[in-house]
Write a structure and sequence with these properties.
It is built from 33 helices and 23 strands. With 813 residues, it is an alpha/beta fold. The chain has three domains: 89 residues, no CATH class; 294 residues, Glycogen Phosphorylase B (Rossmann fold, 3-Layer(aba) Sandwich); 241 residues, Rossmann fold (3-Layer(aba) Sandwich), CATH 3.40.50.2000. Strands 1, 2, 5, 6, 9, 10, 11, 12, 16 and 17 form a ten-stranded mixed sheet that branches. The protein has a six-stranded parallel sheet with strand order 20-19-18-21-22-23, sandwiched between helices. Helix 6 packs across helix 33. It is globular. Bound molecules: ligand B1H. Keywords: Allosteric enzyme, Carbohydrate metabolism, Cytoplasm, Glycosyltransferase, Pyridoxal phosphate, Transferase. It is found in: Cytoplasm. Its cofactor is pyridoxal 5'-phosphate. This is Alpha-1,4 glucan phosphorylase.
Length: 813
């Protein structure tokens, strides 16, 4: 990495003053903190634009290959702090503001979180953009500019309440509207078969309705300030031409209604993580994104080329899960219908350009769209999908002549009562690369999810273990630790996280360990303040901070964690067995609004917290707190304050996890199953520096079918005591039988997520952990080794792998 190029800050103060006076029309004395946040951000944005323009000229001049990352979610979180750090001007700006009588921290706190994502998948996309820019690579994001991001969560009487998150999608200082580059998207309508001049078949897509996609760009500056790429988000607008026509027919209300329905497309992010919505509007959203992105990508390509011969040499497109899988059909439509290429040529270009990442094996998350909906929304694309499938099945008959069953399994169209398009099959057939997001996950994609495709095209399949950006998740979120690291080993780690290895030898230096532990203590104090402010609970920073922060989902097994807490409660209450160390169990996470059991689990956590925290004896040893409204800005406070990171999904179900990496880099010790990237974290930190428990994937697979939770229950008085308590009035307050459904799912409906199978091993591991925690020196060394040995989980490493092995993308410095 070349040294940081610092932008010229001479006009910075004036830009802020001008903004307040001439954009807001106020004297400085009337400006609110939010006004000033906007003023500072527009001054920063000016600097970003200079870098952005220079970057684009550099790319154009060299006619570089570009990678476009298409994703329904980009969970960026607040941007001011990161932009300042990446440009290397945070301290200079702090000083300028101080001179003006302003406090940068107060202004930064005014920035709303752009919550344009649900969880890991969307946050991964944001980490990737940071790494691409920091590696000076031409990588761009395409997404939707939702008016409403993920709902805001509040807790009332222990229940989750959802409130709309209306973020300033049209007025954020980071968004630059580019009305001049709008995209026209046809949708709905029908196919009319006509004959062309030579008498050939010529399908005409007619009577479509036109939606306009207006691009809004967020500049993404890399660390060092050399390169700024962009994230382009589209808002949907009604097409004026179309509406005016109806308007002229005198039907004013219909015209307005049409306008409303078009603009609905970018109104709201679907709030489910690892679960498919299956609604028509969602399909329209997916198509809208894909159509805008493909048009824009082709427009940019054609600025420098006259034909499509170079297309796949100059363009790579990565599909973030199957949500943008319609890109396969849309790129074909564009090349064949719009640009007049022959099918075979268009197909080669399409498959050489596209690559697909799978993010989940959960059956409920695998997208399938009923043909009837696809035909209604995008009739021409359905024809194209049929043609792709026809040709695909033809090649299969050659490869597997006597295997009709296999053809059925592999077809893009699923037969049955309701025929459906299998989006993963479409993505695999249309891509030259298919990857999973952790070693075990990629293995399961090949052997469990789509073994037939692996058999046909083994060379297409590969692994790209996820990563997280060290700029946000260490430099920005944990300034104390970042400073200590830089003082000790220099600042190269910011762009080469593997250099954290050099910290290992410092573990023998008691003075260093002491400093390292002090920083964790300060971060815990900061987190304790957050807990007091948001959950109204006093917690002791000297207790173990044991944190389970992620979406609430049965497979992530917050229930298992709660079972362990209840078990600990009874051990103290009934058996007088005092734990080795006091512990604070901290939860944070949202449940999908329609996910009944996940929401009930939030209520259970609060029920247990009420009982435990109020118990005079138990509360000396156990406290339980739920921090509402988990989001990026809170994660930045929560993660650095963790001693223990709960990563306890049923083995085989968490594709990778990325929270697990953020915790480990910040020195938390993982309590985890052999699942997702936990396995690679265990490899990296070594078995003595992680707590692994429970059944592994093979064992879980072997148990399925014969698994009987009743048998485990019958043999374990401890589990009986815990589950009976869940099903008793103890945690219910005045609501009788409140938690029966959670009890029922485990006891009477097969315990699909195998909580009981892993309970004893979890309890044992937790006992070991408590014992180790009180050995201050041993614990400090363990946490240090977690930081020192997890450099490979930088998203810079992940991006280098994609760039070299999938995209053919080069550094452009
Ligand atoms: C992940 C999703 C997801 N996998 C459907 N799948 C969605 C599926 O709105 N939807 O319909 C939204 C999200 N998200 C996560 O991706 C995995 O569960 C994590 O294990 C993984 O770390 C993350 C990034 O790869």
């Amino acid at each position: 990495m070349d040294s940081i190029i610092k932008p010229d800050l001479s006009g910075f103060e004036n830009t802020i003053r001008d903004y307040v006076r001439y954009v807001l029309g106020k004297p400085m004395t009337d400006a609110t903190s939010t006004d000033l946040f906007n003023g500072v951000s527009s001054a920063v944005r000016k600097l970003l634009m200079d870098i952005r323009i220079e970057t684009e000229q550099r790319y154009d001049r060299r006619d570089v290959k570009r990678m476009h990352y298409i994703s329904m979610e980009f969970l960026t979180g607040p941007l001011l702090a990161n932009n300042l750090l990446n440009m290397g001007i945070q301290e200079d700006v702090r000083a300028i503001l101080k001179n003006m009588g302003l406090d940068l921290d107060i202004l930064m706190a005014c920035e709303p979180d752009p919550s344009l994502g649900n969880g890991g998948l969307g946050r991964l996309a944001a980490c990737f953009l940071d790494s691409l820019a920091s590696l000076d690579m031409p990588g761009f994001g395409y997404g939707i500019n939702y008016d409403y991001g993920l709902f805001k969560q509040s807790i009332m009487g222990g229940y989750q309440r959802e409130k709309p998150d209306y973020w300033p999608s049209r007025s954020s200082p980071w968004l630059i509207a580019r009305s001049g580059e709008k995209c026209m998207v046809p949708v709905y309508g029908r196919i009319v078969d006509t004959e062309d001049i030579e008498g050939g078949y010529n399908p005409m897509w007619s009577e479509w309705k036109l939606v306009v996609g207006r691009p809004h760009d967020i500049p993404v500056v890399g660390y060092g300030g050399h390169t700024a790429n962009r994230l382009r988000l589209f808002s949907a607008w009604a097409s004026e031409d179309f509406d005016i026509q109806i308007f002229n027919e005198g039907d004013y209300f219909r015209a307005v209604e049409r306008k409303i329905s078009s603009e609905n497309i970018s109104k709201i992010l679907y709030p489910s993580d690892s679960q498919e919505a299956g609604r028509e509007l969602r399909l329209v959203q997916e198509y809208f994104l894909v159509a805008c992105a493909v048009q824009d990508i082709i427009r940019i390509y054609l600025k420098q080329h006259d034909d499509f011969n170079q297309f796949s040499k100059k363009v790579a497109i990565q599909l973030n899960d199957t949500h943008p899988a319609l890109t396969v059909a849309e790129l074909m439509r564009s090349l064949v219908d719009v640009h007049g290429l022959e099918w075979d040529n268009a197909w080669d270009i399409t498959t050489q350009t596209l690559a697909y990442t799978n993010h989940t094996l959960l059956p409920e998350a695998l997208e399938k769209w009923p043909l009837a909906i696809v035909e209604k929304v995008i009739p021409r694309h359905l024809q194209i999908i049929y043609e792709i499938n026809r040709r695909f099945l033809e090649t299969l008959t050659v490869n597997y002549p006597d295997d009709p069953q296999r053809l059925h399994r592999m077809s893009i169209i699923e037969e049955g009562d309701e025929k459906q398009v299998r989006m993963a099959h479409l993505a695999i057939v249309g891509s030259h690369s298919v990857n999973g997001v952790a070693k075990i996950h990629s293995h399961l994609v090949k052997t469990g999810l789509v073994p037939d495709f692996y058999d046909l095209w083994p060379e297409k399949f590969n692994n790209k273990t996820n990563g997280v950006t060290p700029r946000r998740w260490l430099l920005s979120a944990n300034p104390g630790l970042a400073r200590l690291i830089t003082e000790s080993i220099g600042d190269k780690w910011i762009v080469d996280l593997d250099t954290l290895k050099a910290l290992e030898s410092l573990g023998r230096d008691p003075a260093f360990l002491e400093k390292f532990s002090m920083i964790k203590r300060e971060n815990k104090v900061r987190l304790a303040r957050l807990i007091k402010k948001t959950a109204y609970i006093d917690v002791d920073p000297d207790s173990i901070f044991d944190i389970h922060a992620k979406r609430i989902h049965e497979y992530k097994r917050q229930f298992l964690n709660v079972m362990h807490i209840i078990h600990g409660y009874f051990m103290i209450q009934e058996e007088g067995v005092i734990p080795t160390a006091p512990r604070t169990y901290i939860f944070s996470g949202k449940a999908a609004p329609g996910y009944f059991l996940a929401k009930l689990l939030i209520r259970l956590i609060h029920g247990v917290a009420d009982v435990v925290n109020k118990d005079p004896l138990v509360s000396q040893w156990i406290k339980v707190a739920f921090i509402p409204d988990y989001k990026v800005s809170l994660a930045e406070i929560i993660i650095p304050g963790a001693d223990v990171s709960e990563q306890i999904s049923t083995a085989g179900m968490e594709a990778s996890g990325t929270g697990n990496m953020k915790f480990a880099i910040n020195g938390a010790v993982t309590m985890g199953t052999m699942d997702g990237a936990n396995i690679e974290i265990a490899e990296a930190v070594g078995p003595d520096n992680i707590y692994i428990f429970g059944h592994d994937v093979e064992e879980i697979q072997a148990m399925r079918g014969a698994y009987d939770p009743g048998k485990i229950l019958a043999q374990s008085p401890h589990i009986q005591r815990v589950l009976n308590a869940v099903n008793s009035p103890l945690f219910c307050g005045w609501e009788n039988d409140l938690f029966f459904p959670l009890f029922d799912a485990v006891v009477n409906h097969g315990d699909y997520y195998m909580n009981l199978a892993d309970f004893q091993s979890y309890v044992d591991a937790q006992v070991r952990l408590s014992g180790d925690y009180v050995d201050k020196k041993k614990w400090a060394q363990m946490t240090l080794l977690n930081t020192a040995r997890t450099g490979i989980f930088s998203s810079d490493r992940t991006i280098r792998e994609y760039a070299g092995e999938v995209w053919g993308l080069e550094r452009q410095i």
